[in-house]
Structure formats: C-alpha cells, structure tokens
Queue: 2 jobs
Job 1
Amino acid sequence: MLDLHVHLLGHLDRKVTKAAVREFLNAAVEKGISYIGFADHDLYWEHFNFSLVRQVGEEYPELQVRIGLEVDYREDREEEIAAMLQACPFDYVIGSVHQIGDWLFDYPEEEKNHHKRDADKLYKEYFAIVEKAAKSGLFDIIGHFDLIKLFGVRPQTDVRLLAAPALEAIKEAGLVVEVNTNGRYKPVQEFYPEYKLLELIKELGIPVTLGSDAHHPGAVGRDISEACLTLQSLGVKEINFFSGRKSIQLPLAF
Ligand code: ZN
Ligand code: FE
Ligand code: FE
Ligand code: ZN
C-alpha cells in the first residue's frame, strides 16, 4: 500500500527532527504502508530538511520513502512555483487549488460563505482553476480533485459535466489524480474525488495514486486500504509511485 500525501510539518505543528520522521515512518509500517511520500505545503518551504528525511528513511529498509511537495496553485504564482521546483530535486509535485481569487475557501470558518454562493458558479470557478493548474506543466499529481465539495455544497448540474474540462486537461497533460481519503473527515464525509468522478477518471484512462493528507502520524495510511478496494471495484489495475519526477506503475494488488 502507498500514501503519497503526508504532511510531516502539519501546519508547523512540529519541527523536522529525526524523532518526528520516525514517528511518521513507524506509523506507516504499522498500517502496512510500504511506499510513503512526504508532501508538505510549499508555504513552509524554509522549514524543510530533505537530507534529514532521506537519512532517517535509510533506517527503514522495508519502506520506500520519497519527498514531494504540495503546491498551492494560483495562476499568478506560476513563475514563483517554477523557480521553487527548479531549486530542489523533488520526487513528485502535487498541485492543489485551495483558493479562488483571494478567497482561501477551505478554512472551517468559510463554510457559511460556501452556502451563500451559487453552487454551480462556485464549482465552475474552482474547476477552471484546476484546469489551469493542469495546463501549467508544473505538476505531476492533482491533489484532492473535487475539494470544493468539502462543506457538502453540491451543484445542480451534474458534477461530471462541470469537471469535464479539468479532467480533459489532466488527461492531455498526462497527470495523475490522487484518491485523497481525508475528505471523509470533512463535513462532506467522502473521499476526493467522489465515486462518479472516479468512474469517469477510470473511463478516461487517467492514472491514479493514493494519499491520506495526514497532518499527524496517527492519520498516515488512514482509509488507504478502503480506497484501494474502491479502485479495484472500478477495475483499476495500477497505482502510481514517483521517483525523480518520473512515475512508476505498481500493481494494485491487495
Ligand atoms: Zn494542510
Ligand atoms: Fe491541500
Ligand atoms: Fe495536503
Ligand atoms: Zn491537501
């Protein structure tokens, strides 16, 4: 099993120490995860310590440890992001949309603002930014593809229609979509992306990977086995791992 979306730093809840890395890796071993990737928020860039993570990773021959990054995508950040990615040899980069214009929409206190908006418009605006992220050429993986649903606001229009242009762009760009289990712990209480979008992703032949979006050791690998079963039920046969920004297909055997 595999988990490529782990936040070692959380939201600066801890420092990168050997003890902290071991706590996460021990949790992975306990959960039966053999492929793990840390992908902290790019916002905390100056707090990273890749050599320490790689060094502690060596203590775990049973684990494949990788270092990625979760980038906050905004159209006006493209140059800044490209420079950041140039500066560091990441194994993979997750592009995530957490912001519409200057509205950081995924904070808990924003829930009421979601309910005030026109849901179809909200989804269209969100997926248009995801589409730009996919076309930017900056990323390997698109994070929590339908994050905009997190407070349970649903569009009137079929979400598959609203998401189609973004999915087409993802397919064109050869990007991977993650099944992110963390949505289950948000008001919407389901994985990202939802099942009918996953069906469409499978139909389109878009490759997938898995992530818990853990911000603490206890959440590493959370619900990943269930996500594997969901993918298997859809007939997905392969899951993507990364090394030096190249994807590696692993059999989804479980
Ligand atoms: Zn976070
Ligand atoms: Fe995120
Ligand atoms: Fe995350
Ligand atoms: Zn995330």
Note: The mean pLDDT is 97.
Job 2
Amino acid sequence: MSSIYPSPEEFVRRANVSGMAAYEELYRRAAQDPEAFWGALAEKEVHWFEKFHTVLEWKAPFAKWFVGGKTNASYNCIDRHLETPRKNKVAILWEGEPGDQRAITYQELHRLVCRFANVLKSRGYKAGDRAIVYMPMVPELPIALLACARLGVTHSVVFGGFSAEALKARIQDLGATLVITADGGYRRGKEVRLKDAVDEALRECPDVSNVIVYQRTGSEVVMQADRDHWWHHLDEGASEDCPAEPLDSEHPLYVLYTSGTTGKPKGILHTTGGYVLYTTMTMKWVFDLKEEDTYWCSADIGWVTGHSYIVYGPLAAGATSVIYEGAPDYPAFDRWWRIVEKYRVNIFYTSPTAIRALIRQGDHWPAKHDLSSLRLLGSVGEPINPAAWEWYHRVIGGGRCPIVDTWWQTETGGILIAPLPGAIPQKPGSGTMPLPGVVPDIIDLAGNPVGRDKEGYLIIRKPWPSMIRTIWGDPERYKEQYWSKVPGVYFTGDAARCDSDGYYWVLGRVDDVMNVSGHRLSTMEVESALVRHPAVAEAAVVGKPHEITGQAVCCFVTLKKGDFSHETLGKELRQWVAHEIGAFARPEEIRFSDSLPKTRSGKIMRRLLREIVTSNSVSGDVTTLEDLSVITKLAAQQDDE
Ligand code: WT7
C-alpha cells in the first residue's frame, strides 16, 4: 500500500481546479467532445489574428490543430499582455551565476524582442528560415527565441552541454542558415566556451551565413569577418517597432532534437497554435498559476522542459518566471534555496536527479533559508522514488506543498499525466491521472489493454494540441516510431501500470533509450561515437542504475588488435564520448571484453548486459577484461527461441 497525500484544504479551496469532482467534470467534458472542448479554450485563451475554421484535422498520424487560424507565439507571450495591468509586471526575473540580476517586465521584453527581431529581419531572415540557438541561460536566450517566433523563423535550441560534433549534426539536419550564440556562459565559476564550438562546427556547415554572438563573459573569441557579428553592435539603433507576423496555426515554431533508438538524433517538430494553447492550459491546471505567483522552473532551456515551462507556457500565461544561469551547488549547496528565499518563489519545478543530489548534501542547506513562500512543488524527467518525494515534500515543501509529478516527453510538448494539485490526492512515485483531453491506456504488443495493476506499454489514444507533428525531414520515421508498433495509437516507449484507483505509475523506457539525470540519451548514439574511435572494434552501451542520476552510461568495448593500456584507453574513451556528444554523456564506466554477448542472429543482447551491470557491484573499473562468451552462449540459445 502506498501512502496518499491529499492537498491541504487551504490549497484546494483556492485552486484553479478545486476538488476531485471539478477535475472529473473537466475530464468528462473533454472526453465527450474533444473538439468542442479545445475549440472553446483556443478561442478564449489564445490570440488569433484570424480565427480558425476547423479545430482538428486528423489524418492519422498527422494532426493539424486550429486549421485556418492565424496566430503568433511571440504575440501571445508578450503583446497581448501590454493592454492589461500586466504591462509592467516582471516577466523574467533573472539571476546569473556570478550573482548579477535583471528584472524584465513584459513591456521591456517587448522592446528587446522587437529590436532583435528587427536585427534578424535586416539580415534577411523571414518565415520558414531556420536558426540554431546555442546559448547560456541568459535573458537573451528567450529573447532570441521570441524574436524568431515573431517572424516565423523556426528555432532549434542546442543545449550548451552538447559538443561541436553534436551541434554540427543538428545544424546540417535542420538546414539552418543562422546561428545565435554567445562567447560563453558560467557554470560552477568557470566559463563554458560556446563560440569556439560553433567555429568548429561551422567548418562543415557552408549554409550558415550569419552568426550572432551575444557577449556574456567578455572573453577572447575569434570573429570571422562577414559571417560573425556581435549582438550588441547589430542591436544598436535597431527599431523597436516590429509587428508580430500573423502565421498559420500550424507554422513550425521549433524543432528540438532528442535521442531515438538509432545513432541519429531526431528533430521533433512543434507548431504554433496548439502548442501555445496546451502550454498555457497546463500552466493553469498543473501549476495552478495565479496572477501574483513567482514561478521557477530550474531546467535548462536547451531541453523541452525549458521551452514549454520557462519560455512559452509561463509567458503566454502572463507569469513572473525566475531564470537562473548556473549550477545548483555554486558557490555552495544552498544556492537554489537562497534564490527561493530572495525572490519569494511560490512554485518550484525541478527534477528527481537534482532532488537526490541535494538530499545527499544534507538538510542543513535548505534549513538555512526561509522557504515559506513555496506553495507548490513539481518534478519532471524520470520516475521519482518515494523516498526523494517524501524528502521534497517534508524538507522543501514544509509538509504544506502539494507535489505535481509530471509525466511527459519532448514529443508530447506539454505535460500529459500529472495531478491537478487542488483536485487529485498524490501518491509518491505516481504521476496520478491524465489531464483533460488526454486518453492514455496500458496495452500489450497485440494492442489489448492489460487492465488494472498490470504492467504494459503506455500509449495515448487521441491526438492533443501540443503533440509532435513529425520528425523534421523524416515523416516515415515519425510514422514508424510512434504510430506503427500498435496501429493508430501513439506509442510512448514507456512501460507503466495503472493501479486500482486509476493512478498511473510510469516505470521507465522499454526501448534502447537511457535516462541520465533526466536527459534522454540513446545507447546507439554512444555506441556509434565509440566505434568512431580508431582502437574500438565493437561497443555495446547500457544504462546502469545510479543512485543520483537515475541511470549512468556503462559501455562494453571490444578492441581492435593492438597493444593498449586499458587504464589509459578507458580514460581516453570517456573523454572521446564527451567530445563526440557532450560532457553530460560521458560514460561512468568502460568495460573491456573479448567478445560481446550476441544472439545467434548477431544482435547484441543489451538485456543481458543490463543484468550484468545491475547485479554486479564492481564499478568504475576500466581495467578488467571480461570474458562474456560463456554467458553469451547460454543466453543466446534462449534468446533466439
Ligand atoms: C522520458 C521523456 C518531459 C521533459 C523531460 C524529459 C521519462 C519524464 C517523467 C515522470 C516518469 C518520466 C519518461 C519519458 N519521464 N517525466 N514524471 N515520471 N518518467 O523529456 O527527454 O523527452 O524524456 O522521460 O521515460 O518517456 P525527454
């Protein structure tokens, strides 16, 4: 029996959706007539230059929402607030890692976004062009996104932790002609140099004709004449008048790359009208957003959480949103709690990995700070273990804050399963119930529902407004990956169980995708990076359970003939992966082996390797040479049957 935490009465009384009956009614209305439900919300919550004529055009698996409508995400996030008392409300409350601060009102945000949009316009960029954004967490990052969105330039943010190699692959796949970056950013007191990586990437990206560089650290960078321009030079004297383009509701707003089950990352496409509506609604439903709230999502804008719940959702909903540039442990482990106290944060949204890392440092860090402003807490990225949930609830939330455990994916664009905190009592470790309009189920591979209390594949039956539209440049892969495992339903790639109270428990991925610190990473991507190293013959990569990061990258490697020191090569290969993909992908463990376990048909048996790394307590050892051939032979017999 898991424990149940109902939200405090005071919270329920003031909640946007108050009480279980209110949730059930909302859910029932959405289920009964989804198009009427979403259509009415879209009219009320989104600004349209021209109204849509059809709510949903569903030619499975391709969806078009609010067809015929003309809108603009940047207008919805900024302009429409300017005619209201929000005009001088703080939109972005920013703190840099060194301690510098900025408070940007909606009016000021409008000025900054219009200026930068005019910069882009004057360099010839227009609707349909694509821009890569590779920046630290400074206000100019959301400003760049909103400026792109204002013109209809499709943006793709590449997380600053990705390497030049990864950046290059994304620029090429997207066919980007513009890169917006910075000299660098701050992380744990050190500079993360970004422009250098851009220079390296662009050696093989001839189509990029402009690089705009925001000056954050002031360190020396190479500027290539004609191609590279300082943001502050271009911005000087730019006009502050830049009307938002009326764009088709289905205009591509952004592409965000994420790992699939192959070595090649896939560009998830999100469009405009449905995305703006759904992120706005989930801000109100899940985060119970009130006009006076100070809201803080600690994610990086380089991941989907930052897109939906730092930039588009909070701004469209008119929130005051905190953005912090740096690391949670800099200069000490109470940096986050310092920020909560300083800005009187009311709603705080973070990941289980971060929570576990902070638990380890001890309760005295949060105890130094007055956290009484907090009224709601959130979690995202992976299942949260009940012990971490309970600590978060007790130590950070003072026992008075509901916790919204939000299940969603890059592909879903917004939260699909989470408690509405004024309505649904929480069970630690469960995302609880689907949001209005979301119809999940748990099925077996034949497509049959498995029923209550049984494990199976989590699927979604009906389209929702912020769903993925396609994989950039590869509609076939989109169909195949998400809609063909069981025809006609959206396949999430997660295993889950629904308990007898109708609560969903997401158990983890069923495919070859790892979840490291809440970041998705494909085993194949790491494997392809490894085999590009001249000493490596073959590699197999699996996720290994890890106390803090959820999973850690564990690699089994067979070498080409030669005289290698395992110790040196182990270090080199870890560095190699960091260089090929990014520092966050650096393997925890490299194990050398004479052979890899394979089925008789030649497929690497990752399942077996997962068992080995899960049960084996030897860790961090890069020098052992394993002979896996015995277990291989035994297991291969079973596996081919
Ligand atoms: C995968 C999606 C959604 C933004 C961050 C990650 C796992 C995410 C939860 C949760 C259990 C979760 C799933 C999902 N996941 N949130 N609350 N409980 N699992 O986005 O990189 O697209 O990864 O993260 O396995 O499929 P992503």
Note: The domain at 516-640 is CATH 3.30.300.30 (GMP Synthetase; Chain A, domain 3).
